[in-house]
């Protein structure tokens, strides 16, 4: 029972599966029926499926047959109509064929025309395409032609720009053409050619700049000088409106048209022709002389080519080399001012060019590079100036050099270069200038002193008097009251020396101009230099004159008078310096003039020389003395030599009227003392071993003549008998021997009131021994003691006793 149920369930499932497969076959595309049939054959009931399939087919056939039967009449009607249409279609076909034949026959010419039109259209299209391609190629060819023209006319920077446009804009549009490949291959070569040619232009420019740096610098310094002159005029005339042209800026911006159509050759680089501009009122700007376009072109070209750094390094290296050449001074630079001027012009020209390059290019040179070059230039320039200026012995050349250095510094300062070290160096040159001035003025003073007549200046008219007073500050009311002709107390060298001192001060002042020094510094410099002039130069000149061998007493007296007046004029020199420097002498740290000391020293030296000269003259007269020390005759007048000597002294002291009283008195006292000392030496000299009392009497007459001269007052101002004291030693000694007053001398010796207080025992003993020797000489018959021959032995004994006592006095004095 169960098996039957199971079989029935399986048959139902199989029937249902077969039904599904049939529906799937009916609804599925025939291309995809394979898998469905495979599922039938995979099963075991394909026989039963076939039966059902046959049953389904018979069912469909019956349905088709029913449907056909239902539509049969309509089908027959349709076939009948179709047969009718077939006939009509045949007719239509024949008509179409006939029409086609006629159309083909009639359209044959049209086809030919259309074919021709087709060819024309094709040609037209080809032509249009060709024109389009040519339109693309023509700009390339035009640019290339323009490039060649620019290369030919040496317009390299525009050529490089054209090359850039050609390479990046035009050639990519026609890169498939063979001629473009040739152009592309030539582009690197053209770039190198442009690069080489621009570098050649730069080298020509650098060479031209090196040769013409002095011209550039000269023009720049002229501009600075003009500006300084204009500034001075404005300072001197502040209220007068200036209508001058405005000064050009230090940095002139050049409108250099790099892509100008006018060709420029290598000869265009460097210095422009300005010969015709020299006569113009306005000096052209330094940059106006230079065409910097080669530098700009080369810089732009190398920048475009990506080699800017290479160009910058090359330019800086070459300019450093040129700087070293410019800074090398010529060996004979110190000989003339033109040598210094050319040297400065070259340096200024170099830095004017570099400064302009700095301000008109971006980075070709920078401030650090310029500062480095300037530091090197400054050190080398200062070293060169120190060396060469030391050879200058002409103060005018040193002054001109100073002015040139100031102009050099001012010019470079306009361009922003620090120049403090140059002004510091000028202070060193100032000392050298002072030395050269001192040497020059030493010669001037020497000539003045050598050419002076050492006589008071005579004046015969009021005009001459005022002329002298105008040259030298002198006031004397008594002299003014005197009638003409009259004389100034000093000689011509006084106003000449005074004016030369003022000229020296002016010369010192000239050097201090434009050094940016304060009034106090200028005043201090002038005073120190003037002190050197007075204490060293003028003092040495005066000393040399005073120490001259052939100098006379008259000249010495006049020198003393002259130095006295020059000493008084020192206060006027102080006022003169104060007036030109506007620094009051009471200002702190103001240097005082040492003129007073200088003239005092010179006067003292002249005084000493007068004393020495007088003594020498006295010695010359004394050399003429010819005493007969053995004479027994008693003379009645002074010796001739002494009379002449006294006459000389009187005439000499008469010249001393204009000397200060103390000087004249000292000279007179010194002369008398020297005369007394010399006479004493004559009397006591060792060569005179014997002398008589007669010779002593003659000597006494000479001493009386000297005393008479002293009493006559040859120089006013001595107190009574003061000058006679110079001969007191001789007088007491002679009185002792002539009066033979030995008892008084020996008794009063050593007492303040002693009559023969000035007689030295040694001197007395020496003279006594000489007399004693004469008395012992029996060969002399005209002895003064001859009448006392009977007492000769007693007298000799007396002399021996006195001599013994004198020796005792000498021994006791030494003990």
TrEMBL record:
Which of UniProt's keywords are assigned here?
Coiled coil, Exocytosis, Transport
List each coiled-coil range: 82-109
Q: Which InterPro entries does the entry link to?
A: EXOC6/Sec15, EXOC6/Sec15_C, EXOC6/Sec15_C_dom1, EXOC6_Sec15_N, EXOC6PINT-1/Sec15/Tip20_C_dom2
Domain Exocyst complex component EXOC6/Sec15 N-terminal, first and last residues per copy: 52-221
Question: Which Pfam families does the record match to this protein?
Answer: EXOC6_Sec15_N (PF20651), Sec15_C (PF04091)
User: What Gene Ontology terms for biological process does this UniProt record contain?
Assistant: Golgi to plasma membrane transport; intracellular protein transport; vesicle tethering involved in exocytosis
Keyword Cell membrane present in the record's keywords: the answer is no
Stretches for region Disordered: 257-280
Alphabetical GO CC annotations of the entry are: exocyst; plasma membrane
Where would I find the Exocyst complex subunit EXOC6/Sec15 C-terminal domain in this sequence?
421-770
Function of this protein?
Answer: Component of the exocyst complex involved in the docking of exocytic vesicles with fusion sites on the plasma membrane.
> What family does the entry list?
Belongs to the SEC15 family.
Which protein are we looking at? Exocyst complex component
> Which species expresses this protein natively?
Suricata suricatta (Meerkat)
Question: Could you read off the lineage of the organism from its UniProt record?
Answer: Eukaryota, Metazoa, Chordata, Craniata, Vertebrata
Gene assigned in the entry: EXOC6B
């Amino acid at each position: 029972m169960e098996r039957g149920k199971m079989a029935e369930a399986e048959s139902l499932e199989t029937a249902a599966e077969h039904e599904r497969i049939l529906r799937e076959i009916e609804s599925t595309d025939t291309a995809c029926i394979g898998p469905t049939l495979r599922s039938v054959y995979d099963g075991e009931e394909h026989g039963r499926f076939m039966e059902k399939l046959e049953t389904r087919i018979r069912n469909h056939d019956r349905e088709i047959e029913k449907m056909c039967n239902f539509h049969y009449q309509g089908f027959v009607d349709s076939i009948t109509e179709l047969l009718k249409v077939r006939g009509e279609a045949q007719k239509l076909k024949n008509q179409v064929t006939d029409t086609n034949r006629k159309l083909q026959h009639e359209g044959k010419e049209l086809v030919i025309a259309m074919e021709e039109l087709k060819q024309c259209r094709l040609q037209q299209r080809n032509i249009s395409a060709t024109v389009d391609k040519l339109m693309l190629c023509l700009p390339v060819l035009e640019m290339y032609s323009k490039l060649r023209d620019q290369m030919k006319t040496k317009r390299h920077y525009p050529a490089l720009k054209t090359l850039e446009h050609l390479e990046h804009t035009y050639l990519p549009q026609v890169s498939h053409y063979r001629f473009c490949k040739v152009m592309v291959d030539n582009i690197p070569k053209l770039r190198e050619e442009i690069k080489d040619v621009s570098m050649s232009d730069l080298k020509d420019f650098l060479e031209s700049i090196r040769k013409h740096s002095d011209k550039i610098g000269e023009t720049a310094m002229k501009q600075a000088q003009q500006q300084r002159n204009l500034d001075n005029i404005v300072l001197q005339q502040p209220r007068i409106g200036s209508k001058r042209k405005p000064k050009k800026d230090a940095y002139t911006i050049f409108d250099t048209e790099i892509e100008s159509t006018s060709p420029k050759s290598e000869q265009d680089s460097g210095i422009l022709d300005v010969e015709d501009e020299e006569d113009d009122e306005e000096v052209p700007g330094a940059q106006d002389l230079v065409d910097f376009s080669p530098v700009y072109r080369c810089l732009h070209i190398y920048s475009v080519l990506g080699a800017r750094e290479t160009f910058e390094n090359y330019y800086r290296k070459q300019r450093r080399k040129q700087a070293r050449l410019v800074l090398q001074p010529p060996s004979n630079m110190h000989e003339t001012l033109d040598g210094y001027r050319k040297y400065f012009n070259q340096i200024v020209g170099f830095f004017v060019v570099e400064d302009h390059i700095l301000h008109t290019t971006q980075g070709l040179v920078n401030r650090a590079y310029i500062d480095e070059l300037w530091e090197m230039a400054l050190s080398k320039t200062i070293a060169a100036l120190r060396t060469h200026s030391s050879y200058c012995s002409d103060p005018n050349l040193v002054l001109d050099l100073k002015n040139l250095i100031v102009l050099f510094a001012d010019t470079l300062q306009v361009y922003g270069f620090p120049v403090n070290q140059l002004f510091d160096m000028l202070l060193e040159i100032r000392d050298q200038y002072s030395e050269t001035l001192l040497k020059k003025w030493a010669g001037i003073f020497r000539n003045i002193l050598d050419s002076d007549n050492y006589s008071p200046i005579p004046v015969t008219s009021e005009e001459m008097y005022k002329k002298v007073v105008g040259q030298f500050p002198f006031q004397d009311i008594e002299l003014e009251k005197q009638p003409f002709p009259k004389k100034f107390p000093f000689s011509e060298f006084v106003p000449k020396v005074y004016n030369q001192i003022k000229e020296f001060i002016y010369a010192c002042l000239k050097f201090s101009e434009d050094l940016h020094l304060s009034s106090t510094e200028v005043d201090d410099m002038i005073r120190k230099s003037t002190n050197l002039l007075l204490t060293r130069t003028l003092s040495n000149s005066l000393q040399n004159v005073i120490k001259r061998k052939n100098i006379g007493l008259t000249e010495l007296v006049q020198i003393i008078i002259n130095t006295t007046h020059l000493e008084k004029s020192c206060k006027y020199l102080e006022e003169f310096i104060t007036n030109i420097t506007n620094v009051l002498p009471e200002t702190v740290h103001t240097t005082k003039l040492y003129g007073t000391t200088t003239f005092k020293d010179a006067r003292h030296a002249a005084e000493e020389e007068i004393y020495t000269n007088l003594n020498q003259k006295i010695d010359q007269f004394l050399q003429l003395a010819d005493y007969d020390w053995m004479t027994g005759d008693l003379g009645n007048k002074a010796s001739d030599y002494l009379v002449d000597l006294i006459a000389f002294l009187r005439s000499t002291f008469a010249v001393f009227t204009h000397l200060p009283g103390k000087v004249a008195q000292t000279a007179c006292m010194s002369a008398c003392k020297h005369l007394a000392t010399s006479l004493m030496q004559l009397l006591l000299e060792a060569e005179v071993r014997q002398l008589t009392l007669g010779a002593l009497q003659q000597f006494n007459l000479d001493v009386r003549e000297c005393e008479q001269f002293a009493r006559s007052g040859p120089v006013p101002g001595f107190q009574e008998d003061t000058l006679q004291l110079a001969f007191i030693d001789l007088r007491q000694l002679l009185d002792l021997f002539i009066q033979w007053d030995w008892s008084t001398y020996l008794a009063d010796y050593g007492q303040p009131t002693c009559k023969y207080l000035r007689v030295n025992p040694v001197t007395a003993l020496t003279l006594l021994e000489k007399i004693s020797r004469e008395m012992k000489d029996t060969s002399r018959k005209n002895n003064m003691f001859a009448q006392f021959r009977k007492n000769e032995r007693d007298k000799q004994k007396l002399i021996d006793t006195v001599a013994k006592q004198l020796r005792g006095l000498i021994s006791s004095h030494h003990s």
